[in-house]
Amino acid sequence: MAPCRSLDGLPIRSKRYSPKVASVAKKKKKKKKKKKKKKKIKKKLFECSIRLLHRSKVGLCHEDVQFTAMNKAVSSRSV
Question: Which top-level group of life is the source organism from (predicted)?
Fold first, then answer.
């Protein structure tokens, strides 16, 4: 049987497990941040696809959509 207290009078288990718990907490935080970034990118792509679908229903093909987007970009730069 291992002694439950070290020479310092502190429990050994807390010394063993404290660094592991800290590392697990850090890993969880990093995972959450990555998920948020992915969601933002998905939303942007989804909005773009909706716009393309809407314009295709109106009667514009993909090339026209790209051309109008280029025109908007040029006009916004010149202003």
Answer: Eukaryota
